[in-house]
Amino acid sequence: MPTDVADYYTLLSVPRSASPTTIKAAYHRALLRHHPDKQASRAPAADADIGLLQQAFRTLTSAHLRAAYDARHTPRAPALPRPAQIVSLEEFAEGAGAWSYACRCGGVYKITEDELERGQHLVACGSCSEVVWVGYEVVEEGGGG
């Protein structure tokens, strides 16, 4: 099945978790909605592809075909940034309340004192999608005897 095929779930207006009974009812509604005799004007609906509706119905009501379709057409979660490397805070240049480290893209990773106090370790580059994991230890200041 080509990857440019319309999403069958969207075509039939059903969720991915729809049962075969729900899919059958949605299929019949779609057929009625696109039927030439049911159109207000006598012009055929521009988006009516009865063959595609039939293929969507056949695919989604067959357990085997649906599993194969879902395997090929499962939406992927957006890619999350991955830590490019682990960098010790000691390698960052200290500034006024913030530390910075040069990224390979020419941008800069910056972490502030507030972020350090909150325990933040992942820091994004200001110019690209890379992140680094900043290694440091929080030292509690105490006046014990």
Q: Would you kindly provide a written description of the structure presented here, covering whatever features stand out?
A:
- This protein is α+β, with helices and mostly antiparallel strands.
- Helices cover 33% and strands 18% of the residues.
- The protein contains five helices and six strands.
- It has helices at residues 8-12, 20-34, 50-61, 63-73, 113-117, and strands at 83-88, 93-94, 98-102, 108-112, 122-124, 131-135.
- A hairpin with a 6-residue loop joins strand 5 and strand 6 (131-135).
- Helix 2 (20-34) runs antiparallel to helix 3 and helix 3 crosses helix 4 (63-73).
- It is rod-shaped, with a radius of gyration of 28 Å.
- The mean pLDDT is 82.
